[in-house]
Amino acid sequence: MPVINRIAGFAEDMTAWRRHLHETPELGFDCFETAAFVEGKLKEFGITEIHTGIAKTGIVALIRGQDADTGPVIGLRADMDALPMTEETGLPYASKVEGKMHACGHDGHTTMLLGAAKYLNETKNFSGTVALIFQPAEEDGGGGGVMVEEGVMDRFNIKEVYGIHNAPGVPFGEMQTTPGPIMAAVDTFHINITGVGGHGAMPHHSKDPVVAAVGIVQAIQTISSRNHYALNDLVISVTQIHTGSAENVIPETAYINGTVRTFDKEVQAMVMLRMQEICNGMGPAYGVEAKLDYEVWYPATVNDAAKTAFAADVARDVVGADNVLDDISREMGAEDFSYMLEARPGAYLFLGAGEGPAVHNPKYNFNDEISPIGASFFARLVETAQPAK
Fold this sequence. Notes:
Helices cover 35% and strands 25% of the residues. The protein is α/β, with parallel strands linked by helices and 389 residues long. The strands form 4 sheets. The protein has an 8-stranded mixed sheet with strand order 1-2-4-3-5-16-6-15, sandwiched between helices. Strands 10-12-8-13 form a 4-stranded antiparallel sheet, with helices on one face. Strands 7-14 form a two-stranded antiparallel sheet. α2 packs antiparallel against α4.
């Protein structure tokens, strides 16, 4: 694999950066220490145009190459936030923050972009400008959307944008992408059921929210099987039911929560309508009140066809033609990079990390050996899209 020699030369530094970030995970928009570390490294590299406080703790740093005043601007994005999980790796650099863990590899994504930044600022073997986007709150809060709402694309005149995500279980160094939709839209639903509590031995004096919850969950499962064309992708998962406190008490309330994954806005609208109809009908049928709160979250992540083909060609230059798949099946996971791709054409790719626990697993650990590959891909992307004159 033709990893850029200069980047390979500071691979140990990248590992140290990543492991420092791994020890100090932060959640959501509160990536203060992470942002301070990133800003410090950028300054250490000699980068002077650093804009902070975007989406609370987000950063956009500019590196100007040749013909910078009139040349194009390309955006490269990395997410910075962690997950509210307790780490179980037992590693010497495991999280030092109870209940917080970099279980999705955002520490590695940040490191890869920092590695590309160091190289690009040293060489400046490109035209125009690179905008390095360090984003908070990918896991929860839609930081990518907030950065777009705060005008980063227009403010920095970004014309195209790219991101990558590590992929455990995918062969080491393999890069994968596809034109069009690559990841699903994600919504969340909450159903609060209110009945009348009472003694478990005398249910006729109660209006049982537990039975109603069971009926509503069963009805929700029919949306995919009976209201939806089977060849259009749709996932509805009920993931939480909370109710009750004792074996002989019929509770007054019950709570249902879950996730919906779609690609088609008409399918999304159908799900919303059917859930409301189910609550409207099943509540009176069981003598309870069922209130639906349906939250529309990240849209589908949709790659621009031309930019995806270009990015795949760059990936072939970095990892070899046999290690690039440019027509993978779309998946039902979600990504708030989708907001950036709605605002500007670009592409999202996966970088194989080899065997190991999956992301969002308490035993997950980012594979530091892929950092030079990701950094080299980002660098080559810039040098190829905006070649020096």
